[in-house]
Design a protein that fits this description.
This protein is α+β, with helices and mostly antiparallel strands and about 250 residues long. About 25% of the residues lie in helices and about 15% in strands. The protein has two domains: about 200 residues, no CATH class; about 30 residues, no CATH class. The strands form two sheets. A five-stranded antiparallel beta sheet has the order 4-3-2-1-5. The protein is flat, with a radius of gyration of 34 Å.
């Protein structure tokens, strides 16, 4: 129902529910408290982890692997990707929807977007700096906006509602809100698994098509029955013998 009415409905609903506390953070629509995203650190003693490798080397080694989508799905959650991204229809909208990202981006583009998130920023999810009338400042991308408030998600993956009346200015930033190093603790082979999972997200349009119904058999020519009396004389008295007085022929 939320998706049907769009982001404006979501913003209006949240604004109405928590308008008395405009600075409340960490509370998604589902009621569960959100955990902040923590950028993992690479083990300095492991040269195979991406955090200890140059970008070019990590990207080349990742793209040389085929990857396992099932393992990548586990990593999608383990690396906190689901804090700001949805990967299936019906989920609460948080940020860039990835349900069909496999059709829209190549493996090389996906690797770049993860290792260098500020290289290309998805339209509509630019980082915005909000300066408030009380001197405070908040940074995040706009999840939804209503007539009274803006719902913003910050770099930690947490959401905050800001009242429009208290926003003094808003400025689009060049830096992506997605933190660099989100896969620092992974190897290129691990990242290849994550890429394989993202490539498997192609949307509902790729669902197996139903086979067409079998063609109906051509109509058969009509059958005409021709009935003649075999005995012009009076029918026999025996009822069981009446049928023998008639002759039935089939004409096509």
């Amino acid at each position: 129902m939320l998706e049907k009415f769009g982001f404006e409905f979501v913003g209006a609903l949240v604004s109405r529910c928590i308008s008395s506390r405009p600075d409340v953070v960490n509370r998604p629509l589902g009621g569960e408290k959100e955990a902040p995203v923590v950028v993992p650190k690479a083990d300095p003693n492991n040269p195979h982890q991406i955090g200890n490798m140059p970008y070019e080397a990590a990207a080349k080694r990742t793209l040389a692997q085929r990857g396992n989508a099932a393992k990548g799905k586990v990593l999608f959650k383990a690396q906190s990707c689901n804090a700001c991204h949805t990967d299936a229809d019906g989920q609460t909208l948080k940020g860039p929807h990835m349900v069909d990202i496999g059709k829209r981006y190549s493996p090389a583009e996906l690797v770049e977007s993860i290792l260098k998130p500020s290289a290309k920023i998805a339209q509509g999810f630019e980082t915005v700096l909000f300066e408030m009338t009380d001197g405070k400042a908040f940074t995040g991308f706009v999840v939804s906006e209503s007539a009274r408030a803006v719902l913003v998600r910050d770099a930690a993956g947490l959401q905050r509602q800001l009242e429009l009346a208290k926003i003094e200015s808003r400025t689009i930033q060049k830096q992506s809100l997605m933190p660099e190093g989100i896969v620092n603790n992974l190897t290129p082979e691990d990242l290849a698994d994550l890429i394989a999972y993202l490539k498997s997200l192609t949307g509902s349009n790729d669902a197996p098509k139903k086979s067409a119904p079998a063609a109906a058999d051509p109509p058969k020519p009509p059958v005409h029955l021709k009935i003649k009396r075999s005995h012009p004389l009076q029918a026999p008295r025996n009822p069981m013998a009446i049928a023998s007085c008639w002759r039935v022929t089939i004409e096509k």
